[in-house]
Design goal:
Elements (H helix, E strand, L loop, with lengths): L2 H18 L6 H34 L12 E5 L7 H12 L8 H9 L4 E9 L3 E8 L2 E5 L3 E4 L4 E2 L12 E3 L5 H15 L6 E6 L5 E5 L4 E5 L3 H16 L6 E5 L7 E4 L10
Parallel strand pairs: 1-3, 4-7, 7-8, 10-11
Antiparallel strand pairs: 2-3, 4-5, 5-6, 8-9, 9-10, 11-12
Helix pairs in contact: 3-4, 5-6
Length: 274
Amino acid sequence: MSPRSHARQRVLDRAEVARRSGAPASAATQAEPRIAGWLVQAVAWTLALALVVLPLVGLLNGWFASERWPVRAITINARFERISAEQVQATVAPHASKGFFALRLDEIGTALAGLPWVERVEVRKRWPDTLEVTLHEHRAIARWGTDRLLSDHGVLFAAPGADALQGLPLRDGPDSRVPEVVQAWSDARRVLAGTPLVPVGVRLTARGSWRIRLADGADLVLGREHAMERLARFARALPSVLAGETRALARADLRYTNGFALTWREATNTNPEA
């Protein structure tokens, strides 16, 4: 027998002696069954959890069983002036078809808020089959610029046909200065009350200059500073300004310290020679 074979034999003999004498096995050998048990338990718990969670996820996402919990009623609370109930129904219907549990209230609210004239919207679910929608419309008090409207809450919004609305005063200016424009309109009406001048619009230019548009189309240029003081001074002087004047005012520049620069419309000859 070779020396190498003889050494291997001695190692094997020692292992056999240790096994027969009841010597303890290594830590790795003892841990193997325990780890295997843990893995089996983890897999079992994972499968059990999946069997519980997956049906719930599918139900909430409308993947199945939507016909068992349908949305049978859509209740709309609104004062319909610019928006119709049909518009609201058509917007909500695609979302409601997924079933009661799969309704995404935030998505429905976003879709409704995208309708023209909608100021704010609230959406709720009521068990077992009802979707409730509360909708508030903008109430326009003025036209803003050429294509937008100003609401009674000071909100600018766009709406189809805004430029065709009749009877609304015109206001215009930078979006960041809406409160100042609203206040200027109120002040101008107060200052000109009781005079022949009827304001229908107020504008704040990009350079910060104020202008008042009158019902007959005339413009009052107030400038950037002391605008209402200048307007009040002009209102006090108006009787003497208009005394004996037959022409209509076209433009009044009130930015001068000691007077006004007035532009008049040429009188129209209503009796032309035959």
